[in-house]
Each structure stands twice: as C-alpha cells, then as structure tokens.
Design brief:
This protein is α/β, with parallel strands linked by helices. Helices cover about 45% and strands about 15% of the residues. The chain is built from 27 helices and 22 strands. Strands 7-14-13-9-10-11-12-8 form an 8-stranded mixed beta sheet. Strands 21-20-19-18-17-16-15-22 form an 8-stranded parallel beta sheet. A hairpin with a 2-residue loop joins strand 5 (about 115-125) and strand 6 (about 125-135). The longest helix has 24 residues, at about 215-240. The model is unreliable at about 170-175, about 240-245 and about 530 (pLDDT under 50).
C-alpha cells in the first residue's frame, strides 16, 4: 500500500465496508467480501478473519490462504500468533512471523510462503472475540497507517459479527463458567489495611452500537461538547477534594487535569472521525492505540501515566454516549469493594468514602496515582490480580487483606467468622497501641530507645501525633518528584519541606535527598540513549543521578536550606558508596548555604549531614567517613538484596534469604563497632526495624534508634518495654561468635524464655 494518512486509508476501507454491511448477503458472504476488500485496499496477499467459537479461534474467511482451511483451522486462545493476539488483546507487526516464539505452523493453510505478518484483535466489551490478520511473501514490517486501518476494520467487524450472531454472547462475556465456590487470589499489596464488602464493578462497559458515521461534522461537535462537559467535571472534583489542600494528591489531580486538556489527544480523536468513525468509535479507536503503546512501555511510571489517559478516555466515552452510569454515579448501596482493571485518581474521588471499604485491581502499581490518593483516603488497595473479572460476579462477598495482598472471594461462613474475629482483634490492637502514644519506649533496664517513623507525604505527618513517635527518621523526598508531570519548582519543594517541619514541631526530621533513577524513572528527566539497565536497583540512581545532574541537587539543597531557616536541618545522602560522593554532595549544600548567606537570608541554626548504608562497599570506608558524619542510617531493604545478590521482589527469592541470617547481623555489628568510637548516631530505617523479632535482634546489636512505618510504632514500643537490653546484647554477642544453625528459631526461643511477645 502506498503510505498515506491513516484517516484517508481507513475512510477508503470504511466506505466499502459500509456497503458490504448494508447488503442483503449472509454473514459468511459478508466476511468473504470483507477479506477481499481489505486485501485489495492494503495491497495484501493474505487477509484472514478468525472468530472465537466454543472457546477456539476458528478461521472464518481468508483471501490468500487455502480455502479448504476455512472452518477447519482452529487454535486455542494463547496458541500461535493469532491466539497470542486474542489472549493479550494486543497488535503484532512482524517482518518474519516464524521468528516469533509463539509462531505455530498450520500446514493445511498453505501459509509457509508468507513471511511478514500483522494482526489486530477484534474486541467487544473489552474482550477479544476474534482476530483480523494480513500476510505478505516479502519480509517487512507494516506501516503505521496500515496497522491503524486494520484496527478500524476490526471495530467494524466487531459490530458485524455481533449483529450476525457469529459469536456466543455468554462465552464472550465470560459469564458462562464463572466459579461459585470460595477462591483465594494473591496479588500485590499497594495500600495496607483489611476490609470486607460486596464486589462492585467500577465501570459497566459502554457498548458502541454504531461505528460508521453518517455526518462527520455532527460527530465532531458531539466530541467537542463531551470534552467541555468532562473538563467541567474534573475541575469540580479537583476543587472539592475532601482531604485538604496542599497534599501530593493535589499534584496528582493537577497532572490528571493536564491530560484532560491535552490538545494532542483531541487531535487524534478528530483524525479518527475524519476517517469516517462515529464519536464513540473514534474515542475507542484512539484508546485501543493507547493500550497498544502501554504494552510496549517498560517504564512502570510512564505506564501509570498512560493509565490516567485511559481513565479519561473511559470518562469521555461515557459522556459522549450519554451512558454515565459508573458505580459511583449510581451510588453504593452498602459496604463495597471496588473491582476494576485499573482506576484513575479522579474516579476514585467520586465514591462515597463511608461505603467504599477497599479497591482491588487487575493491574496497578506502587507508583500509580490512584494508590497515592487511596492512601490519603485510608482505603486498602491490592493490585496485580490477573484475570480478576473472569473469576467473580458483581455482588460476591470479598475479604480484602491489604497487609498480605490476599483477596478471598465468596468466603465460607467459617472463613468469614475468622476474618471478622481478626478484624475485631485488629481494632482492639489499634486501640491498645493508640493508648501507648504518650508512653516512652524505655527498656526493662531503663534505657531509652528512639522510635521514629518513615514518611514521604504531607498526609503522613498526622501519624507523628497519632503514634507518639520521636520524629521522622526518613522523609523520602522523591515522592514529590514521582507524582509531578514536570520537575517540581524550588518554591513548591520549599513549601513541602517547610510544611513537614512545621508539622513536626520540635521533633527532628531527616530529609533524604531525592532517590530517583533505576526503577523510579522520571518521564521529564532525559536519559542517555541506549541506557537500558538490566539491574536498575544497582544502576544510575540516587546520589549518582544527583551528582551528575547537579542542577537538580542544587535546587533541592536551596529548597531545604530555605525551609529550615531558624531550625536544625538534618539531610541524608542515599546510596553513598565512597567518601568522595558524600563530600561532593555536602559541597553542593555548602555552596548554596554561602549563596543564601551573601543575600542575607535567614539560615538554619545547624546542619547535620548523614549518609545511608545501603551499598556494602561503604562499610570498608566507615572508619574514614564516620568523623565527617553527624549520623548514619542503615537502609536494610537495599542492603539485604545487595549483600545476598537477591532481588527481594522476585517471587522465588523473596523468602529465601532471612533478615536474621548471621551474614546480615555480623555485617550490621561491624558497622556499629566501627562507628562507635566517633559517637555517630546510627538508625535503622528499613522494614527490618518494624518487625518485632528482627527489632529484638537489632537491639541486641546495640542499635537503639529505629525509623519504621507508623503502624509498627506501637508494637515496637511495647517490645522495648519487655526487653532487658543488657541480656539480649550478651546473648547476641555469643550467637555472632558461634552462629546457631537457625538464628530465627534461636531468637524466637530466647524471646519466649524471657516472656517477650514477638508475634
């Protein structure tokens, strides 16, 4: 095909398809005619249509393959290239089909002569009901205009095959064989907490009944009006956010609004209308293209931003079609668990917070905008529950355990009773720990232990008073960068840091300079060409990025110095590997301090500089570095995976290496011993310090400063009150010298013998 605009190519095909659909021919004759038209318009030697019948993809019509294979060639969803397209609802565009790992040769089709292959799914109600594919003898990738034309054809075919009854509607909807008994799903805990309620599907899918437009200009006006209405809704929601101004969720909504007003998005929809589609079909056509791009994006942060655009597409589609009935607009009738493939932040804000108890997602990630908003709302969220909608019905009872990332569907009475008992105990425990907020963590032998919290949001600050923590031992400044569409301006950074210090009052706050890079990629921070990292956690991230892009660190340094005017500033550098890195980072702060001093600005009363122990190499430098430090923080999460060369997010490795391994404990003991002569404060600010048995081991190593999640403050305070630090240190010294076979079992037995509750 001669390359031309997607609109012109699609319109030429649509005109012919419109005539075919209006004819009195039977469904099979129409499909036979369709493959001839597509093949001719795209100058394609092969065009084939496969439809889903009785759970199998059946060759229904072809131009170029053997006609004897029609209604004979069948393959399962997930089998071969056609099955892969249907299973993943994705487009394939291959110069050499046989080189693809999912290629499956079918000799009866006579396809061995053809090298290139392109296929798109035929989608109805978010499920693939077939595939349309083209092939050429010549090895080549298809032009983008050809792929877009095929996608438009697939939309028309969806309408044709549904009206002709060529697919089984119950099978298409996936309702035919849904399970009815109890079932457990394991996902990813995104926001912690437990909840129970009835499954409510967030979004009844808008069914597009008319694909081909009669009046292009009328369709364009419908889209313009829908855009105006949608933008008004979003502006209204942003102004009515319930949890106050200035939080990170506010920045999320500003980014979301930026997408809503994006001119490029509207232009792409207009181009699809130019090709002859109705307003609904044009929005869906652009949305399909977005989904295809999302599947090609390895960067999770950019993928999350694409989810925001998909959320807006769904909203626009409902607005233009007049089908506005989401679960939010219809109203929740009781305690509900929201079920969605993915969810945008604005849509979550529409729900009645008194009745919305939890959210479960087929997709989702820790950096998704909706997770930030849900955390601010106090709603547990579990993501990565693959095939979720195919396993439950609306109205099913659900038990959501956001602490462990587990969802129990259709629980038995005994499961429900056990969950309710746990729920009641959880409330009792929380009340008990809340009552301890004014109690200082003092050991049985009278030693004061410092218990602080980790934070990263303005909305975390109330937890200081609710838990009675001693301060913030780790404030992760990168969160502001991750939720922003552009690099946060210095004034915005200053405002955040000042608000945090104001909320903390006399209690210390340790600000960690921005830890970005690796798997926390900022879309607005340009990366070197070809800089794909196989091991992002050990790559170009944290202080390494900040020192190379020193403008970023200079802005943050000045923002922190200005925010801490008249107060003590505690600043900590992440991922320090050698002393020169610490010195270079400190020099950036000192130069900004001198700049502010020359301009007669109010300066911090004192500046305390610290470093994180995450990279094992720094342990070999601590005798040199310790005299320059005011404090040292041990990040046990990264440190553990670096010591064991094991990604803790990997399902086969997550439980393989124990935090109570002598390798970890001996390493930490060496750090404590090396730093002790210099009087440098040592804090553990990783997840290890928030677990009672692991915290007992840390106390035994002589570490008396912990920075942990707010939920762990009460349990750790209670633990400290039960421990004689002298006794545990004496026992730990012996175990480190001659390690027991199982340190965890040994420590558990010791705790039981000394009446210490470590559950």
């Amino acid at each position: 095909m001669v390359p031309q605009s997607a609109a012109v190519a699609a319109r030429a095909i649509l005109t012919s398809l419109h005539e075919i659909m209006a004819s009195r021919s039977g469904a099979q004759a129409k499909l036979n005619h369709v493959v001839e038209v597509i093949g001719e318009k795209l100058d394609s030697e092969v065009c084939s249509i496969y439809l889903l019948r009785e759970g199998m993809l059946e060759l229904f019509a072809t131009r170029g393959l053997n006609q004897s294979a029609v209604h004979v060639t069948r393959m399962a969803v997930g089998e071969g290239l056609v099955g892969t397209i249907a299973m993943n609802i994705e487009t394939l565009n291959l110069a050499e089909a046989a080189a693809h790992p999912d290629f499956a040769f079918r000799p009866e089709t006579g396809e061995e002569r053809f090298h290139s292959f392109a296929g798109v799914p035929i989608v109805r109600r978010q499920r693939a009901v077939g595939v349309v594919a083209v092939q050429h003898v010549e090895p080549r990738r298809y032009e983008e205009v050809e792929i877009e034309a095929l996608q438009t054809v697939a939309m028309v075919l969806s309408e044709l095959i549904a009206n002709a009854g060529l697919i089984d509607e119950d099978d298409q909807l996936g309702q035919g064989n849904l399970p009815t008994g109890p079932e457990r799903l394991q996902g990813m805990a995104l926001v912690k907490g437990i909840a129970t309620g009835i499954a409510v599907f967030h979004q009844p899918r808008v069914t597009i009944e008319h694909i081909v437009a009669d009046d292009t200009e009328a369709e364009r006006q419908r889209v313009y009006l829908a855009f105006d209405k949608m933008r008004e809704q979003i502006d209204r929601m942003a102004s009515q956010a319930e949890f106050g101004a200035g939080g990170e969720h506010e920045e999320v909504l500003q980014t979301y609004k930026m997408f809503a007003y994006d001119e490029g998005w509207g232009r792409r929809i207009n181009e699809a209308i130019d090709s002859g589609l109705t307003a609904e079909a044009a929005i869906e056509r652009v949305q399909q293209r977005t989904r295809m791009r999302m599947r090609q994006i390895d960067d999770p942060l950019l993928a999350d931003r694409m989810h925001d655009l998909e959320d807006l597409s769904n909203r626009l589609l409902r607005t233009v079609s007049g089908q506005l009935g989401t679960a939010a607009s219809l109203g929740l009738k009781g305690d509900a668990i929201l079920v969605a493939r993915n969810l945008g932040p604005a849509e979550l804000l529409e729900y009645d917070r008194r009745r919305l108890k939890g959210v479960i997602l087929e997709e989702g990630s820790l950096t998704a905008h909706v997770v930030i908003v849900a955390r601010a709302m106090g709603i547990p969220v579990i993501g990565r529950l693959r095939g979720l909608r195919g396993k439950l019905r609306e109205g099913d009872q659900l038990l959501v355990d956001g602490d462990r990332g587990v969802v129990d569907m259709r629980p038995t009475p005994s499961m429900l009773e056990a969950f309710e008992t746990r729920f009641a105990k959880n409330r009792e425990r929380q009340a008990h720990y809340a009552a301890m907020r004014a109690v200082e963590p003092v050991s049985r032998d009278g030693q004061r232990v410092t218990v602080m919290i980790n934070a990263g949001l303005r909305d975390d600050m109330p937890m200081l008073n609710l838990t009675g923590a001693d301060g913030i031992g780790l404030f992760r400044t990168e969160f502001q960068f991750l939720v922003s569409a552009t690099l946060p301006a210095r004034e915005r950074q200053t405002r955040l840091y000042r608000d945090v210090l104001d909320a903390a009052g006399d209690r210390p706050v340790v600000f960690r300079t921005v830890d970005i890079g690796g798997d926390k990629v900022l879309p607005y921070l340009r990366h070197d060409e070809g800089a794909l990292e196989e091991n992002p956690a050990m790559g170009w991230r944290a202080l390494r990025v900040a020192l190379e892009r020193d403008g970023l660190l200079k802005v943050q340094a000045r923002a922190l110095l200005e925010a801490a005017a008249g107060r003590t500033l505690n600043v900590m550098f992440p991922m320090v590997t050698e002393p020169w890195e610490f010195d270079a980072a400190k020099a950036v702060f000192e130069s900004q301090l001198a700049f502010l001093k020359r301009r007669k600005k109010v300066l911090p009363e004192a500046i305390r500089y610290g470093a994180m122990v995450e990279v094992p190499a720094i342990a070999e430098w601590l005798d040199v570095l310790a005299p320059r430090l005011s404090f040292l923080s041990i990040g046990t999460n990264d440190l553990t995976q670096f010591l064991f060369a094991a990604d803790r997010a990997h399902p086969k490795l997550a439980e393989r290496y124990d935090w109570l391994s002598p390798a970890i404990l001996r390493f930490l003991s060496r750090v404590v011993t090396t730093v002790a002569p210099h009087g440098t404060d040592i804090t553990v600010c990783g997840e290890m310090g928030g677990r009672r048995l692991e915290a007992l081991a840390l106390l035994g190593l002589g570490i008396t400063r912990l920075s942990i999640t707010p939920a762990a403050v009460g349990p750790i305070k209670e633990l400290v009150s039960q421990v004689d630090l002298g006794q545990i240190r004496q026992s730990m010294a012996g175990w480190l010298k001659t390690p027991p076979e199982n340190m965890r079992a040994t420590l558990t037995a010791w705790a039981a013998d000394h009446a210490i509750d470590c559950d």
